[in-house]
Amino acid sequence: MTHTSTGTLSEDLEQAAQLVTVGSHYHHYKDQVKVYVVTDLAILEADESVAVLYRIANGQNPEFTWVRPFTSFLESVIVDGISVPRFSKIENIS
Fold this sequence. Notes:
The chain is α+β, with helices and mostly antiparallel strands and 94 residues long.
């Protein structure tokens, strides 16, 4: 595999950060009660794509850090025939 330049990887992370902000909170489509917080953006070693690192901000297992490809984090899924975002940003959280 030919590696991507660090400059290009940095640009990829900067572009991702415009759409997913570290420290922002989200609901997952399967459970609107749980709140997840984005803890970082990273590069997946396997294919050098951007990934989102996040953890639950309330509920069970707050010590777990989850990793999801950036494109998967932002994609929509079909629920009962309706397209909904996999993760929905919570704009006002107390």
